[in-house]
Design brief:
Radius of gyration: 21 Å
Structural class: alpha/beta
Shape: elongated
Strand order of the largest sheet: 22-23-1-24
Number of helices: 14
Largest sheet: 4 strands, mixed
Strand content: 25-35%
Helix content: 25-40%
Number of strands: 24
């Protein structure tokens, strides 16, 4: 199993390009199942999760080709199957995103209950409840979701909890349903808005994406599309925190500051210098950082996907910080590993109290999930000595060319192949 070796102490500086957003690319690639034709996507990050969704689409008979330089072609003209096997779905929870498109296009779906990061339960019951309300017959059998319908029917759906993948799944299904579907308490994330824009380019009729009420007027068919994937706001936020923790100066290119507002405001609050331009952000350390309070919330609040990373940053800030996790109940699994490096963190229910320390020390640590692995990388960049991070396959699921980008900024980092 591959490991990362990072020797801390180098101040990171320079400029890097932010990759296409994984969390936007996955549903957009899944949406290709809705169209009888060949769709082409650009700025697609080269990640394990993209490989997984691509393999999944080939299970249904789609042809998926990587053209290089971030291009991906999906031809869904000849779909012949509707089974999403456990062997693929277990590695990535976003695999559930094929359920809605398969139902809408083929009238049937057999999708394994998903796996992925161990950050607490993320039930798919909201997806199933909504699709049932649209007329799908759904049975859970031996770890699989079995769903079928003659034709999905538009209806009004209220999500008890704001759910990104639930909103995306049902929105895709509703594009080919009879009548109008209204999603209330819909997720407002930029990735949801991006998916709606793609579906509209394919001939869909969606209004309200980016708000908590989305209206979808079903159409008889969708067509192929060409689209460039938006930049990854979570990757951008991670490198912003790398600038802060290493007392560095990093300019992030191909970045949308509007998608990072809550993060940028929090970084300014703790003492970082932030300069925003139309498509870039520069983050500089200018003074000792101060503690703060962070509460994860659905967009436009502070993202749960950056909670672990800002915790690493606050480990070296002055005073005591409180981080409250409101989205996923088990998303403090990185705390034990940060403690191994000398962090002072106390857990109390859904909150973590972080007392700043003068230094961290390199140690053998283990990544428990995607974003936890990023927090360990950040801590290692500033820790005294060398840190060995194992189970980095988590990192490879969500960060494109992370070793290459960090080296470009001056980090002492290398992968040890097992």
């Amino acid at each position: 199993m591959n490991k990362l070796l990072i020797t801390g102490g180098n101040r990171l500086h320079g400029a890097i390009d932010i990759s296409g957003a994984k969390n936007a690319a996955l549903p957009i690639i899944a949406s290709a199942l809705l169209a009888d034709g060949c769709s082409l996507y650009f700025n697609v990050p080269k990640l394990r999760d993209i490989t997984t969704i691509s393999r999944l689409l080939t299970e249904f008979g789609a042809e998926v080709d990587t053209g290089g330089n971030g291009a991906l072609r999906v031809d869904s003209s000849n779909l012949r199957a509707y089974n999403a096997p456990y062997e693929l779905v277990k590695t990535m929870r976003a695999s559930i995103l094929v359920l809605g498109p398969l139902l809408a296009r083929m009238g049937k779906a057999r999708v394994s209950l998903p796996g992925g990061c161990a950050i607490g339960p993320r039930p798919v019951d909201l997806h199933l409840k909504a699709l049932s309300a649209m007329g799908a017959r759904i049975v859970l059998e031996r770890g699989y979701i079995l769903a079928d319908c003659r034709k999905l029917k538009g209806t009004k759906i209220y999500f008890d909890i704001s759910t990104v993948t639930g909103t995306e799944n049902v929105m895709m299904a509703a594009t080919l349903a009879d009548g109008t579907t209204v999603l209330e308490n819909a997720a407002r994330e930029p990735e949801v808005e991006e998916l709606a824009a793609v579906l509209n380019k394919m001939g869909g009729r969606i209004e309200g994406a980016g708000t908590d009420v989305i209206t979808i007027d079903g159409v008889s068919a969708l067509h192929q599309v060409e689209h460039t994937i938006m930049p990854d706001r979570i990757e951008a936020g991670t490198y912003m925190m790398a600038a802060g923790i290493t007392r560095g100066d990093i300019r992030l290119l191909n970045c949308n500051p509007a998608h990072c507002y809550a993060v940028l405001e929090k970084l300014k609050e703790i003492g970082l210098d932030v300069a925003e331009e139309k498509a870039s952000v520069r983050v500089r350390w200018k003074q000792p950082l101060s503690g703060t309070e962070v509460r994860t919330l659905p967009y436009p609040g502070f993202p749960t996907d950056l909670q672990a990373q800002i915790m690493a940053l606050l480990c070296l800030s002055e005073g005591t910080s409180m981080i409250s996790e409101t989205i996923f109940e088990d998303r403090f699994m990185h705390v034990g590993e940060l403690r191994r490096m000398g962090a002072h963190i106390r857990l109390d229910g859904g909150s973590a109290f972080v007392s700043g320390v003068k230094r961290l020390s390199g140690a053998p640590v283990m990544a428990t999930d995607l974003r936890a692995s990023a927090s360990l990388v950040l801590a290692a960049l500033v820790a005294e000595g060398t840190t060995e991070i194992s189970r980095i396959y988590h990192l490879e699921r969500g960060y494109e060319r992370v070793e290459e980008k960090l080296k470009l900024l001056g980090a002492d980092i290398r992968t040890v192949r097992a």
